[in-house]
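hey so i finally got around to running both of the ones u sent me last week. sorry it took forever, my laptop kept dying halfway thru and i had to restart like 3 times lol. anyway pasting them below in the order u listed, first the sequence line then the structure token line for each. didnt double check formatting much so if smth looks off just lmk and ill redo it

first one:
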Amino acid sequence: MKIIPDSISNLIEEFSKLPGIGPKTASRLTFYLLTKPESDVQRFGQVLLDLKKSLKYCQNCFNITTESPCEICASPKRDTSKIMIVEEPLDVLALEKTGYDGLYHVLGGVISPIEGIGPENLRIAEILEKIKKDNSQIKELILATDPSLEGEATAMYLNSAILKLENVKIKVTRIARGLPIGGDLEYADEVTLTRALEGRKEY
């Protein structure tokens, strides 16, 4: 005997596939939608259907946009001598809040042999080609991949690949890693503490 109708269990299953959403949260979201008016549910469904219809990747940085080039790449106020290399479009949203005024390059992930993702599966060839083409204009490349094993491996691979480019002299930097604001030393892992010590500055 089925306790939950298929329509409900199917939606719970789909919500559960989203990152950070477990079965309990998926169930709460599903039953919350059941309390909403039909018009709200229809609008929610339509928004999901329309999500990818008008979106595309920027021809320059590969960020998600509605127009190509995107607003960031097309803006005359951006510093075109700096390119921040990030993993995903979500990273661009986070970094824009910092006041960073340069350009971006979205890799589309990180090198992860376990998941079968190699350099050829990312937009690494595109950034290397951009460097060779705009060598005289680009002054700094900022590696802003996550401080995870995969992120570090990707940053190391990129740095090595850039160094191998002939007649290219560009400053390559890595975003600092260390303790988060409000964090306690006793809860920090060994790698984080080591990075914090390595990146210390005069006070």
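and the second one:
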Amino acid sequence: MTAHRSRLRSSRYNFCVPFGEGDSVLYNAGSGASIRLAGSDVGEITELLCGPPREVATRIIPRPLLASLRRGGFLIEQAFDEVAAIRERYWVARGRTPMVLTLTTTQDCNLGCYYCYEERSRATLTAANVPAILDWTRERLAASGKDSLHVDWYGGEPLLNIAFIEVASAALQSLCNELNVSYSASVISNGTCWPDDVAGFIRRHRIRQAQISFDGLKANHDKRRRYRRGRAPEPSASSFEQAVALVDKLLDVVRVDLRFNADRGNADDLEPLVAFCLQRGWFDRPFACVFQLARISDYSERSGFMSQAKLSEDEFERLRERARHLVPNESNLDETTTRSLYPLPRTSVCAALADDSIVVGADGHRYRCGLQVGEKNRPIAMVGAGGQMSPGPDAPWWDTFDPTRQPNCSRCSFLPVCWGGCPKKHLEGDTASLHEQSLYWRKALPQKIAWQFGVAMNENTFAFSESDQFR
């Protein structure tokens, strides 16, 4: 074999997922490439390529494999700055990520969920807010050249202010028609106060996805999602039964993300709740239900008390594994639970970081993250006298946040597929939550890689280590 004298460097984003003796997959998080290797020298090759970046003498690698390793980014030129390349990709994505306009129709809610992190108030958006919303949307669409707009109806319980939805939706759709921009919408709701003509509401407002939350079966759900005093439509009203009746109707016309909010007090409802969904045929409807497993957590300073009741990352991962066995198809699972989505490098950012997305609070202030709505020190733009907007204290932070310049993220080998996780956690200095994000990727990434090769893997089979993550 002809010797190859050139020297290259191993990528810091190389990973090895072992399937068995002499059988492994090489994966590169920076490119998304993967190569299955078999043979007696697999251990030697993977040891050479995975770990801290190092010079590699290419003469010891067969020519066909060497070509594949270079194409896949496993071997790179000595001078190539991988972190700088990801930084460039990140900033391009901030500009290219689709435009999302989140409208908090009201901070009010008819239910009193014990874990709610939002500050309840009677603040609502009204028709008087629509001109300013239209002006901002028109300006951003013109400046960005985006050809689509997605509106997320948010609350509180957004359907408590259906009058605003009717006015604002019609105005925004008219604007998009004028500008030849495509329009779509979604809604996050507790499912208790929808109009009778569900299909008409969905079609009129061009809603393509509805998230309806459940806290388990009826006993747990009604206890946790009870009506606030004076807000029940009748004394015997069940928020569970109302949400179930709504989902029955919605699945004829729109995708429903059924969100199961789990903590240590209701985690045992997972099996019976999935069985209930199966019994009602929710996974087999014209628009199949997507089961979205969520961990009730201390989302903000106001819900810090949840730190004792929330599931640990290990407990939640075990719940995810149970959900994978219970839900009939991978397509019926949300993207954080499913293993079937190949872990490609990120090309978009969350709406909180997108240059052309915004959250309008029911108070009229503008926020980056919906979880911050109503927090008086968190608007990035505050409405003042005469409707004039002034910058909020966090605006510069959101404008400049860059995970590639964070001390831990910059040396993390999950960076291309994670991009630092939730930016809100960075802003708040929530190191515990950021550590949990690391644990998630250590367990989930090998499972997602293995799935593509027909190998079932769980956290007990194999997980990446801290030294695999930080190099």
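quick thing i noticed on the 2nd:
Residues 1-80 form one domain.
anyway thats it, ttyl
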